[in-house]
Design brief:
This protein has 9 helices and 2 strands. The chain is an all-alpha fold and 243 residues long. Strands 1-2 form a two-stranded antiparallel ribbon. 18% of the residues are buried.
Length: 243
């Protein structure tokens, strides 16, 4: 299974614009019947799109670009290989042992970063998938409300006959409430599923707090510095170029 590309996810997000017209249509009808909860839901969706979703993608991209630990491990190995061509002795042995421990820690740290990258990228694509479906739900709700325009005209026409006005107004409000109930239910279902999926990703695939506490650390040099720092404990290999 390949790791999702956060850059590709960001590019995909850029092609999806927030449906302002659909938002305005839903707000219009919500204001008409005083459905303040629907307006609050739309406001939260705007924050989700403008802030939370972008933050997720940016964080995934940051993790994807981290390769400093890998580069450091390569430099330590290069230094060890370079010294190995001309030097031996207990100082070199001590240095070789310590550098091996350092490289092992650096490589394990890079593995942890890679795991974080995979998790954050998958979270980002999960959120984008949810966003697509939320936009679809928003558009469907606006379309359903637009179909009520004919009923709205009937309500206005029946105002001259009070009994008909009351019945028509009730039908109209009931139809709006029905559309809003479906919109609310669809949004809650999508967001709940997204939270469940992300929870499963973090819970089963990677424990962020565990990585924080067990992240490999470079071992302390300790007494190795005394050995490695003593020139008399380095020996030139027989036949090696003194330069």
């Amino acid at each position: 299974m390949t790791t999702p590309d956060p850059g590709q996810a960001a590019a995909e997000l850029a092609t999806m614009s927030y449906p302002e017209a659909a938002d305005a249509k839903i707000r219009e009808y919500a204001d008409l019947i005083g459905a303040h909860g629907i307006i609050g839901l739309l406001d939260k969706l705007r924050v989700f799109v403008a802030g939370d979703l972008r933050k997720t993608l940016d964080l995934a991209d940051v993790f994807a670009r981290q390769n400093k630990l890998k580069e450091a491990a390569e430099k330590v190995n290069d230094a060890k290989l370079s010294l190995n061509t001309a030097w031996h002795g207990d100082a070199f042995d001590q240095y070789s042992m310590y550098s091996g421990m350092a490289v092992d820690s650096l490589n394990k740290g890079q593995v942890s970063i890679t795991s974080l990258t995979k998790t954050m990228s998958t979270v980002a694509t999960t959120v984008i998938s949810t966003y697509k479906n939320l936009l679809l739900a928003l558009g469907n709700c606006a379309a359903n409300l637009a179909q009520l325009s004919g009923k709205f005209a009937i309500v206005l026409g029946s105002l001259l006959v009070p009994p008909l006005a009351a019945l028509s107004a009730k039908d109209f409000v009931d139809a709006i409430n029905s559309a809003f109930e479906k919109f609310w239910r669809d949004c809650n279902t999508l967001l709940a599923a997204m939270i469940t999926d992300i929870g499963a990703l973090v819970g089963s695939g990677l424990e962020l707090t565990a990585i924080e506490t067990t992240f490999p650390k470079i071992p302390d040099v300790g007494t190795s510095a005394e050995v490695v720092g003593e020139p008399r404990r380095w020996r030139i290999k027989p036949g090696a170029d003194p330069s």
